[in-house]
């Protein structure tokens, strides 16, 4: 019956109620199987997120203690040889602590335990704070860091938007060679305020631009550059959590511009829930 309908040869006399009933039954089984598979996938994802959150939370305090005791040891009058042995321990412990903190943040964003509280405010202080945060790293690397204020306002969670912008600026400084430049600016764009982080780094091939926002994803330019591949993922999650989004414009050899779009006004729904802990 279905084949004849597709071919245009179906007539009313061809109607077969039993065939239609059989088709409905098969369709119901397919839909039921699909729904069951989706539920199983969601449960599996929730279990993985819960496991990551539990591990990160349980390891957080011991790792903080390792860093604390390493710092105390550093201040205890060590010889140069002892300091040389301690330095790699501090560096590796710091990396692990950073990873645990970011895994915990990502897990809380994904599960809804960490929700954002956007409020209207000026954008320029956000740019200045991000530049100050990255200033030492930029100076050490020989990268010029500039801020172009615009006087615009937007609706954003100040604490977590600063976290997202810090990740974007940190990436820009990290991938820009010595003698290069990173510029922070903002402009109004219809119902959004667009915050741009522009760099003169190696650029990103178009084929990689969607993938770099995945968790633990790193582009081809990341070879030989330290990183965990979670900063852009977190930045996008934070942007989406308050009605915004992030876009990238880039080409190999031409640098990159990461644009963080923040709503100019609070949405009707509003993500007005108190901060969760970090």
TrEMBL record:
Keywords: Kinase, Phosphoprotein, Transferase, Two-component regulatory system. GO terms for molecular function: phosphorelay sensor kinase activity. Its EC number is 2.7.13.3. Pfam families: HATPase_c, HisKA. Signal peptide: none annotated. The keyword Kinase applies. PANTHER family: SENSOR-TYPE HISTIDINE KINASE PRRB, TWO-COMPONENT HISTIDINE KINASE. This is histidine kinase.
């Amino acid at each position: 019956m279905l084949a004849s309908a597709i071919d245009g040869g179906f007539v009313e006399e061809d109607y077969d109620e039993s065939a239609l009933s059989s088709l409905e039954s098969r369709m119901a089984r397919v839909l039921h199987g699909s729904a069951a598979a989706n539920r199983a996938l969601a449960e599996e994802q929730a279990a993985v997120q819960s496991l990551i959150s539990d591990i990160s939370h349980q390891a957080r305090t011991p790792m903080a203690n390792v860093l604390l005791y390493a710092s105390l040891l550093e201040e205890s009058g060590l010889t140069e040889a002892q300091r040389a042995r301690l330095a790699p321990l501090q560096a590796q412990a710091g990396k692990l602590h950073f990873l645990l903190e970011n895994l915990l943040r990502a897990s809380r964003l994904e599960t809804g335990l960490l929700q954002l509280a956007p409020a209207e405010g000026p954008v320029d202080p956000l740019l200045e704070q991000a530049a100050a945060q990255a200033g030492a790293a930029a100076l050490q690397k020989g990268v010029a860091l500039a801020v172009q204020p615009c006087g615009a306002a937007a609706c954003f969670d100040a604490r977590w938007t600063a976290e997202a912008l810090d990740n974007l600026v940190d990436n820009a400084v990290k991938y820009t060679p010595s003698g290069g430049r990173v510029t922070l600016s903002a402009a109004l764009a219809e119902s959004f305020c667009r915050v741009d982080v522009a760099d003169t780094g190696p650029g990103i091939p178009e084929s990689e631009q969607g993938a770099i926002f995945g968790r633990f994803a790193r582009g081809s330019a990341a070879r030989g550059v330290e990183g965990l591949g979670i900063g852009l993922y977190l930045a996008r999650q934070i942007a989406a959590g308050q009605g915004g989004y992030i876009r990238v414009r880039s080409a190999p050899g031409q640098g990159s511009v990461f644009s963080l779009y923040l709503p100019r006004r609070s949405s009707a729904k509003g993500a007005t829930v108190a901060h969760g802990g970090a």
